[in-house]
Structures are given as structure tokens and as C-alpha cells.
Amino acid sequence: FPPHHPLVPVDYTFVGQPVLVGGSMGTSSYVLMGTDRGMAATFGSTCHGAGRAQSRAGSRRKLDYADVLSGLAAKGISIRVASPKLVMEEAPESYKDVSAVVETCHAAGISTKAVKL
């Protein structure tokens, strides 16, 4: 919701409703704020994640477990997972570029970038 919308909690009255946009393993996440244009054009909706670039099954077929782990390790990221197939399914390569998705929403005016995490 945009600033001053009656459903926005009082703490966010002047900035709009915050929206957390989670990235994938190995990418950034963002906090966006609602806008008047977003309310008018999308009923107050914006992105809530990057979205998958390939299906879970496609990721399992195309990605290698060890390659994904070494790519994450090169970024200083270590993980614990119950099933190796989940590593490929949730690999950064399985998702669209969250920065590009957020930039598109910001440029369209349906939300405003607040913080990159």
C-alpha cells in the first residue's frame, strides 16, 4: 500500500507498506515500499521474489550438486541440507536475477526500492 493508505500500519504512514523481496541462495534481498501508482495499477501488488528461471525438475537435470556447492563456497556461503536434490532446486541459477526484477518494479513505479540486503 502507498503512504497514507488507511490499511498501512501507523509506523509506515509516511513511507508506505514495506515489502520483503527475498533473493535466492547467493543473491541479495530487498525491501520495497508501496506506491500510489502501484495501488492504482496493480491493486497494491508488486513482486515478492525473483521467480523461477527453470523448473525444479529442470534444475535437477541441468545442475551438478558439487558445482552448486563450490559456487556457493566461492561466495562464502555454506549450507546444510537434508537432500542434495534441494541444492540444485534452490540454486541461484534456478531463479531469475532478483536485482533485475526489483529494478523493473521500481522503474514501473509500482514499488520503490528502499534497502538492498
Which keywords apply here?
117 residues; alpha+beta; three-stranded antiparallel sheet
Task: Describe it.
The chain is of the alpha+beta class and 117 residues long. The chain contains 5 helices and 3 strands, in the order ββαααααβ. The chain has helices at residues 36-42, 56-62, 65-74, 84-89, 98-108, and strands at 18-21, 30-34, 111-116. Strands 1-2-3 form a 3-stranded antiparallel β-sheet. 27% of the residues are buried. The model has no long low-confidence stretch (mean pLDDT 93).
Classification by helices and strands: alpha+beta
What is the tally of beta strands? 3
Mean pLDDT: 93
Intertermini distance? 21 Å
- Placed side by side, the strands forming the largest sheet appear as 1-2-3
Shape: elongated
The biggest beta sheet is recorded as: 3 strands, antiparallel
- Taken as a percent bin, the fraction of beta residues is 5-15%
Show unreliable segments: none
Q: What level of helicity do the residues show? A: 25-40%
Helix-strand pattern: EEHHHHHE
Using only C-alpha atoms, the radius of gyration works out to 17 Å
Put simply, the count of helices is 5
